[in-house]
Amino acid sequence: MVMKFADKLLSASRKNQSWLCIGLDPDPELLPGLDVLQFNKAIIEATSDLVCAYKPNLAFYEALGAEGFATLEKTLHCIPDHIPVIADAKRGDIGNTAKAYARALFSVFGFDAATVSPYLGFDSIEPFINYRHKGVFILCRTSNRGATDFQNLCTDGRPLYEVVARKAGEWNAYGNIGLVVGATYPEELERVRSICPDMCLLIPGVGSQGGDLAAAVAHGTDARGEKAIINVSRQVLYASREKDFARAAREMAEKIRGQINSSLASHPGSQ
Amino acid sequence: MVMKFADKLLSASRKNQSWLCIGLDPDPELLPGLDVLQFNKAIIEATSDLVCAYKPNLAFYEALGAEGFATLEKTLHCIPDHIPVIADAKRGDIGNTAKAYARALFSVFGFDAATVSPYLGFDSIEPFINYRHKGVFILCRTSNRGATDFQNLCTDGRPLYEVVARKAGEWNAYGNIGLVVGATYPEELERVRSICPDMCLLIPGVGSQGGDLAAAVAHGTDARGEKAIINVSRQVLYASREKDFARAAREMAEKIRGQINSSLASHPGSQ
To answer: Of A122, A211, B84, B85, which alpha carbon lies 20 to 30 A from A205's?
Structure first.
């Protein structure tokens, strides 16, 4: 029987005592004299007992051309089976095409979850949701500066990102929808968590982007102090730019996991 | 000197007397006994004197795994240099990652233009716009049913898609922004054209999706009867599912080009 994404995530998180997700976003210009696959492999080997998930962003593989997707496939083979892998793809297209993307990410590459964009509405997301044992993270309130251009526009008396969160709740018939909410806006994160108390939230924006880790944990977790996936990419991958990058990445991952767990220790649901 | 996208598009359109764009979206299950590259090559050879552009949707290549992107690269080599190629990618990600996507599509694969999603705001689109000689088509009002879920929500007294069109106008410092507006909603198309009188519009949704071609031409073109790229995919690609598919595709492309040109003949700017 195939394990559902949320169960696989909780299982990995409990085993590794971690809500840290590492973004596998290799930039060839920043790698210490080895290729992308060797780099990813070393990062995974150094950190796979410290994470709840990995999250490759497909842009960094697409930037390597066709070869990049072969590297992505090989990278996925390096990740232990019990660790879920989220395709950060932010896909959003019409029905027929959305089906092709969902098939690509879930059946062909074999990801456990994917990020999708809400702009095209329900029928652009439905083909992903229909893979009931896979996770689907809808972009809600992103971590970047430009997020306010549209996501905070007032619609029907509330900001657009809240409308997206509510719709996501309505669409969640199979319980496999999550939301992407940046750590850089803790108040918005708190709002989204109150609208969707049980959903998994994928939270980028701590580390290099400057989001506050303790606030992300406090506002992002559910009532039990779970389901807040804290993603860090560059801060871990490039903790050292020298030959000791894997050891430095491990130390940084341990440190951030420790900080997350310290914040969780004071969480009302953690007892 | 590198030709700007809009100039390359106009040049191809005038040479071929065509505003028809063919979507190169091969579905292996629908191909008459040959592989995707052979199919694409035959379609391109049969139609390259009838189009203003080609538009591969990346989903259909991603669905073939790493091999699919190699096929995409080879497909691009089959397209004559003077015909612009639009990457239908609908990308939208934060700054650092958006840069990687823009590099992937424009520098690595060498597309002339790309479609992007507006949900993440200006800094997600800026890295694309900064390639000044490339075209950037922002999703505005899409052709699918679910488009109304968010795009028609009222914000600041107008629907979100109009806000996107206005923002696109503000962001268009280099004159390389266009908009994607579905033919299935001719009134919205007319609104967008009135907001952005000079932009290139990429108009999917005629053919299999049921949009009215004459209305798309009437409402989508600019004052000179130009800059409305009418995209058709399945209706041309699968005009025949037999061995004569290339001839059938050519006949269908000729027919649609003729219909577009007939509609243009009654356009006030065409004299």
So the answer is: A122
